[in-house]
Amino acid sequence: MTLQTEYAVFGTLVAANLALGLYFSLRRSTRSADTTAEVFLGSRALRAVPVAASVAASIFSSMAMVGFAGHTYAYGFHLMWDAVTTLAVAPLAAHLFLPVFYDLRITSVFEVSCIGAAHF
Question: Which residues contact 40 (CB under 8 A, 6 or more apart)?
């Protein structure tokens, strides 16, 4: 990819997430205290696409971009095999783990260990 293409993809991702955030913040009719369910899960009212875009923006942080570029320059392109395995495993996680977490109203994987310890 060329430098202009990379900037265009990154700029589009940032602009789309900014637009989604502004849309949902201005659309909210009442102002209430932000809870963890509201912040992390969009009060369980958001659809999959805005949540997925938010997760993607979180994963592609500036540190990751600098780190991946530096690692690729120093050691080669083999790090991109992570992307292949992620694409292979993502449907499994979406259909196996996420429905369970959603039904249990869990916002983090770390809460699963707390539930197990509480039942023990």
Answer: 107, 108
Mean of pLDDT values over 21-42? 71
Hey, what are 105's tokens? Answer: 């109203």
Domains of the chain by residue range: 1-60, 77-120
Contact 57, 17 (CB under 8 A): yes
> What is the average per-residue pLDDT within 35-49?
69
- For residue 104, give both structure tokens: 């249990």
The angle at the Cα of 12, spanning 109 to 62, to the nearest 5 degrees, equals: 55
Radius of gyration of the chain (CA): 18
> Which pLDDT belongs to residue 40?
67
32 token code pair: 């209430």
Calculated CA dihedral for residues 76, 82, 83, 84, nearest 10 degrees = 100
Query: Which structure tokens are listed for 61?
Result: 């942080």
First to last CA, the chain: 52
